[in-house]
Specification:
With 153 residues, the chain is an alpha+beta fold. The protein contains 2 helices and 8 strands. Helices cover 22% and strands 42% of the residues. It starts with a helix and ends with a strand.
């Protein structure tokens, strides 16, 4: 755990310079892989940016003595259906499509998948489909059990 904290401290300046945020940092001991999941502030990511960040991180890591054995560096996006760890992420996204599991029913639903219209004062206002109708729900952040991005099918 201490090594991850030191690695994080080492790589954060590179990520800030590259205009990306750290989503997750993992050391996978079974195959000696350092996995760095990154994204832009709006939640997006592309392959070219991953490759550029990988090159920059590789240079910084090679100059350090934090990893002394052979390893693989994997720079990736958090994924299309990544968990939203902080609701403030929604402020930088343009109407994201999300899945929400609730602690208590909202409009008689325990799960809602739909498009965020606004996120203000800790409340998500979203539209969702209910049979043939489009409905709106206001969901207080404290009522959310789990939230992630969703893919429209």
């Amino acid at each position: 755990m201490e090594q991850i904290a030191k690695l994080k401290e080492l790589i954060l300046p590179v990520l800030n310079t590259s205009g990306v945020l750290l989503y997750d940092l993992k050391w996978i001991a079974s195959d000696h892989t350092l996995q760095v999941a990154v994204m832009r502030e709006d939640g997006s990511m592309d392959l070219d940016t991953c490759a550029e960040v990988s090159e920059q991180l590789s240079a910084v890591l090679d100059d350090s003595d934090l990893i002394t054995s052979a390893y693989t560096l994997e720079v990736c996006s958090p994924g299309a259906e990544r968990e939203i760890r902080d609701l403030k992420e929604l402020e930088h996204m343009d109407h994201p499509y999300i899945y929400v599991r609730l602690k208590h029913p909202v409009k008689k639903l325990m799960e809602i998948t739909g498009e965020v219209q606004t996120y203000e004062n800790g409340i998500i206002t979203m539209t969702y489909r209910d049979k043939a109708a489009t409905r709106t729900a206001e969901i207080p952040g404290e009522e959310i059990d789990y939230i992630r991005l969703a893919v429209r099918i």
